[in-house]
Amino acid sequence: MKFGKPVVAGLLLAAGASTRMADLKQLLPVRGRPMLSAVLGEALTSDLDQVVLVLGHRASDIRKSLGSQLRHPRLQIIENPNYLHGISSSIKAGLREIREQCDHAMILLADMPFLEACHINTLLRAYLVSGQPLGALAVAGRRSHPVVFSRDLFGELDTLEGDVGARELFRKYADSVCLAPSGKDWDDRDIDTPEDYAAIGRNGKNIEYRIRNVES
């Protein structure tokens, strides 16, 4: 941890096996590049001090898809050997890498294809000004992702188990949450199934199709 300006790391979780998708969703084309590459590019463009990309399933294939992003000075890539134990294992793996030098951790999901640097920065600014230990983007009054935590909660994040995120912490500390309005035009959907991916295309989003057994 450093004195002075708070140090905020982003933990970009991309270790899952995409069991509900007919293809590895991290590699599905979005805006002319693999989905994970698009999200990672926004994270690296943002004001985050560091980005830790957590891989697991088919990590070597995903690394190959990232091209020159692999050399970005603010990017660290780790592999979570326990990714089959769920998203909590990836959160804990990421925390192990940043807990000594960072004051806050923002959790980013690799399957939110329309996340942009401006959304990350909106949350970052509002959260740091608020002084609260938790923060999240708000869409139409409801909590969405990304979410961010003070190092005071890193220990509790370490107790998470299974395929759950930090929902329970937001319930536990409901009176200590900074909700940052994201703006009415942001599409915060995540992509879990072939139907999710196809629906985005039908709604006119700039998505390229490459999933087997889905009509485009």
In short:
With 216 residues, the protein is of the alpha/beta class. The protein is built from seven helices and nine strands; from the N terminus they run E-E-E-H-E-H-E-H-E-H-E-E-H-H-E-H.
Structure characteristics:
single chain; 216 residues; alpha/beta; Spore Coat Polysaccharide Biosynthesis Protein SpsA, Chain A; seven-stranded mixed β-sheet; two-stranded antiparallel sheet; 7 helices; 9 strands; globular
Give me the CATH fold name.
Answer: Spore Coat Polysaccharide Biosynthesis Protein SpsA, Chain A
Average pLDDT figure = 89
Runs with pLDDT <50, length 5+? 206-216
Number of strands: 9
How would a textbook summarize the main sheet? 7 strands, mixed
User: CATH architecture, please?
Assistant: Alpha-Beta Complex
Helix percentage range = 25-40%
Which strands sit side by side, in order, in the main sheet? 5-4-1-6-8-7-9
What structural category do the secondary elements indicate? alpha/beta
Shape: globular
Rg over CA atoms, rounded to whole Å, is 17 Å
**Could you name the CATH class?**
Alpha Beta
**Count of individual domains:** 1
Strand portion:
15-25%
